[in-house]
Automatic annotation (TrEMBL), chain B:
Lineage: Eukaryota, Sar, Stramenopiles, Bigyra, Labyrinthulomycetes
Keyword Endoplasmic reticulum applies: yes
Protein name as annotated: Trafficking protein particle complex subunit
Function: May play a role in vesicular transport from endoplasmic reticulum to Golgi.
Cell compartment(s), UniProt: Endoplasmic reticulum; Golgi apparatus, cis-Golgi network
Transmembrane segments: none
Keyword Flavoprotein: no
Organism from which the protein derives: Hondaea fermentalgiana
UniProt keyword annotations, A-Z: Endoplasmic reticulum, ER-Golgi transport, Golgi apparatus, Transport
Quaternary structure and interacting proteins, as annotated: Homodimer.
Length: 163, 186
């Protein structure tokens, strides 16, 4: 069975966040937030598989990370990453001023417990980035940080390039 | 184009969006995880329904706030809003409402197109899985919030070779206000 999604228009981010919330709740109940990262990884890996089917081969890591920040982010969230920083030694920091995973109005950003919840929301997207890059030949470690939600930073540490 | 159709379109246009494929893959990952965790498909079906119920309870607030829709006068009207506004807004698809019973309390939502089921093929070990059961829960939760107790069931499933996925939706009863007469605002 093949999907019709080539022509399928985008869907509601609110409904998506509620779905993500349920995922967090399931993994939280099992005390296994690592599972969220793995789920994210699988989703990112598969998404890139379909998305890059006709894309030319990449030749270096910077090219791949730029592709992630521009093309992939745009395709997934309807916007590009707002800023990309690198120390040129294998660390990249993606700034997303309005991260789709946490831009929900139902998070009270002043409340400690809500912030803990928001951190959990960012585990799956870290896995998603790792999965996407893995499919493009880069092994890395990803962690998320935030100071003022919904602004987020994704810190990518490249471990191995297989390009 | 009917009034609800236009309303659904305009609400959909105003919403923040996310890639449909990402949505579908994420739902798929969730279902696959539940199948691995629970092994028993009946439990998975129940869990999907329960999750949907949680989601529905919250989605209805979004729908009411964004659409500004007035109180429905009948269950037929409710079903029309569910299809043309609710499903359009949140899943970008509009199921046909069909097969009403005479009393106007039961109908079938027929999905020509169900985004949740893109790229999905059920393994034979999951023959009893109601893959899109989350939708039944969403309907139950959302309508419960507007005082309508409904029962929903997938009665036809495109993933199992049926021509289309269909959900039978039955109005059980109208939920009485819990506050006494004295506290009624209207």
């Amino acid at each position: 069975r093949s999907g019709a999604s080539q022509s399928r228009g985008p869907m509601s981010a609110i409904a998506y966040r509620m779905l993500a919330f349920e995922l967090v709740r399931i993994c939280d109940a099992q005390n296994d937030l690592g599972k969220l990262e793995m789920l994210g990884f699988g989703i990112g890996h598969r998404f890139v598989e379909r998305f890059t089917r006709t894309h030319a081969k990449f030749t270096n890591t910077l090219e791949v990370v730029k592709f992630l920040c521009k093309d992939l982010w745009l395709a997934m969230f309807g916007k590009q990453v707002d800023k990309l920083q690198t120390n040129h030694k294998g660390v990249f920091v993606l700034h997303d001023n309005k991260c789709a995973w946490v831009s929900s109005v139902d998070i009270d950003y002043s409340d400690e417990e809500s912030l803990e919840q928001a951190k959990k929301f960012l585990i799956a997207p870290c896995g998603l980035i790792r999965g996407a890059l893995s499919n493009l030949g880069i092994k890395c470690t990803v962690r998320a940080e935030f100071s003022t939600l919904p602004m987020c930073f994704f810190n990518i540490q490249i471990n191995e390039e297989m390009l | 184009m009917s009034r609800n159709q236009r309303l659904g379109e305009s609400c959909y246009n105003d919403l923040e969006k996310i890639n449909a494929e990402l949505f579908t893959l994420t739902y798929g990952a969730l279902v696959a995880q539940l199948v691995r965790d629970m092994e028993d498909v009946d439990k998975v079906n129940a869990k999907l329904d329960e999750m949907g119920h949680n989601i529905g309870l919250r989605l209805i607030d979004e729908l009411l706030a964004k659409s500004g829709i007035a109180r429905c006068g009948s269950f037929r009207e409710t079903a029309d809003v569910v299809s043309k506004v609710g499903f359009k807004m949140f899943l970008n698809t509009v199921p046909n409402v069909d097969n009403w019973n005479e009393r106007g309390t039961e109908c079938t939502l027929v999905f020509d197109d169900n985004p949740l089921e893109d790229f999905v093929a059920l393994p034979s070990s999951c023959a009893g899985l109601k893959y899109s059961n989350v939708l039944c829960g969403v309907l139950r939760g959302a309508l419960e919030s507007v005082h309508l107790a409904v029962a929903c069931e997938i009665v036809s499933d495109a993933l199992k070779g049926d021509p289309k996925t269909e959900i039978r939706m039955s109005l059980k009863h109208v939920i009485e206000d819990e506050a006494g007469e004295d506290y009624r605002e209207d």
